[in-house]
Amino acid sequence: ILNVEQSPQSLHVQEGDSTNFTCSFPSSNFYALHWYRWETAKSPEALFVMTLNGDEKKKGRISATLNTKEGYSYLYIKGSQPEDSATYLCASEEGAQKLVFGQGTRLTINP
Amino acid sequence: TAGITQAPTSQILAAGRSMTLRCTQDMRHNAMYWYRQDLGLGLRLIHYSNTAGTTGKGEVPDGYSVSRANTDDFPLTLASAVPSQTSVYFCASSEVNGQPQHFGDGTRLSIL
User: Fold this and answer.
1) Do B96 and A104 touch (CB under 8 A)?
2) Contact at CB, A45 and B103, closer than 8 angstroms
3) How does pLDDT run across A1-23, given as a tens digit for each residue?
4) Which of 34-63 (A) contact B at CB < 8 A?
């Protein structure tokens, strides 16, 4: 079983500020790194899937980077808005399409 | 497009009873998964299926069984429910390796 760690566990950010958080994962047998956004009372929604070392993906104000050699990924949110409040999950895919999830970073944007 | 449909939305079940959680997808995805979500433990994989006719065990398979008779359906059965199986259960699907998983809305199950 892979050990996927996310930090911080929770984060409070002022509206308009930018923020970032970390996902670390074992780099052996790596296949892909997933990021999901999970809003309260909803189901997780895919943000990015990255496979290559140095990959960088962007969706609006949210972007992510990947370092497979050292086993970490960063998620960045630029100019946080209240609708960004959610739990952000990362998951490492080792193969056979199975994901191991971290416990998430709970982000709260203060208006 | 419906995506993934889970039923029931919630259920209260007496310990010792059996229960099947239903999951249906209309995206023709090969792979399907069952997770449970518990406070402080995140999402943990119970069972998965890479294609119709095959299933595999995840991180926490004990007390659960699955079947994959066709592409669209992936039911999860609790043969004899215990209180520790109280959880929120999510079904998900994906096309192939390296593709995002699509999640259902979850089933909240309470075992008393």
Assistant:
1) no
2) yes
3) 458 999 999 999 999 999 999 99
4) 34, 36, 42-46, 49, 51
